[in-house]
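User: Could you check the structure of this?
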Amino acid sequence: MVLLCNLERTGWLAALTWVDRARALAGEALEINRAQVPESADHAFSLERLARIAELDGDLAGAETELEHALAIRQRLDGGSVDSARTLARIAELARQRGDLEVADRAAKDAQSRLEQRASGAPAHGGTLHVRAEIARDRAQHAEALRLDRQAIAILERVVPDTLAVAQVHHGLARSLRALGDSGGTLERYEQALQVFERQVRKVGDALDRARFADRFERTVQDYVDLLIELGFQERAFSVLERMRARQARVQLESHDTKLMGQTGPLGRHSEEYRVLAVEYDRLLERLLTADSAASAAEIDALRSELIEVDRRRRATLTEMVEIEPRLALLDPPVVDLVTLSQFLGSDTLLLSYLLGEEHGWLFALHGGSVTSHRLASASELDQLIERFRALAASPGPVGSQKALFELGSRLYSMLVAPVGAVVLDRAARIVVVPDRALHRLPFAALVTDLVEQPPPAGARGAPSVRFLLERAPIHYASSASTEVALARRRRVARNRSRAPSPEPRLAIAAFGDPRYQPESLRASQPHSPEAQQILRAAPAQLPWSRREVRALASLFDDTAVFLGSDATELQARTVAGRANVLHFAVHGFSDSRIDADSGLLFTPAASGPRARTATTACSRLGRSSKD
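Assistant: Sure, the predicted structure tokens are below.
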């Protein structure tokens, strides 16, 4: 089945639309604690929670203010407590990010002094040593940073191995070793950091945890890829990027609730068991991370053993879920090697995989079994150009604005695709795009490959002659190259099945259009995604012209099914998905900036029954309805 979902998907941190909602909920908790238990540990915790949200939203000064208030409360409760030391360490890190290294250094040293007295060798002690190492790195004191991070890693790997804190210290060690000219040691530390990220299993936490994980992971991969390309290891750099993409897919799978994986019957029971085990893992890990010197070595070892056992059961449950529903494996594809990838893509397919960073980005082009890399502009520069391009495309207007649209489309093509080279592009019969961040919102098909100014007729204004990328070759999108291979394997199985007799006739295409977006029905809907909730509150416009689109498309095929108006429901889509070679949706869509797999479509709400309150479905859930 080919699932055609024209969605504006975003990167992990590209559009944090959930931050306002998280801040509102944390604010409510703060008001409750302030009223019921003022100046308590719960009050301080609520302030620290608001600080985390502000930090992820880029408001470092606001985050520091909340933490200083929390520190004042904790100082009054117990000035030398481990909790007050942790808060001090967080203030130090925020001051470092703001560039105030003097304040950061004083706060970090104060936190370290308290921890050495009350919790020497605890995870918080190791974390504070790493903050001090980061401050030293910012001052270009790399030997000192190396010394502090080595102390930190000795503590953290002993007490909380395979955690985000350990990965961050490996990343810091790599940066210092690179500055000191030790390329071999740098590569080793980056690889260790990447392996820890791949084993990292604290992923059921809330959106803040997942965003923080993603941010640290992407920074590490960006630096690792930069070094590999600098050293001439193009294929290895591409492999590192693929490993990150596969890990991101796994985070999405494992951070979902039962709405993603759960159904009635055995799969639903396994899904619930998986969720419970994942939450238990988080609880045990939190106990380890907050352990102080009062905890004995035996207690620490017992916690670690329990943690390992829960993780073993969680992984075994996931394996059983995949055995029950094999399509879940598509959300966690194995990373394929370059040879396998080239075999599946074929010699006529060009794969374009992107990695965008704060300072610059990279384009990896795979064609004919070889990989090339090309340096790109920064994520912020591309984001601005893409938003301008989308705005022009939404309202092209007169010839002058159309010309501006085409010129910008040509510029984006030159920046994002043309570096591959005309020879490679001319040989490509198919293009597979693996986007990143703002590129999820860019319609690559509309990029302009050729722009020629035509002389105007007498008395008229000239209009440019254009050729779009879509006219060169069909364009496909994938979340990773490994996912594309998994889908190719699935298509082969589907073709073999389609040759066998089936009780249900297959459809060439099933098309949906012009759903009924009645205000009262939309108000009754309760979608999981905050972005979907926002769209429903805004009452999306009706799409009457989509009827013509759907009928015209269906007329091109035999054996079709068309669902318009009140028939364009999620239930119909899930029912027909397994029989259709192509699904076409002329409906509104929404993106979920927290979890890509929750991006989805807006259907006509069902009139009655258990789905009466459902107007939306995630593409991931709809895709699993396909039997092929």
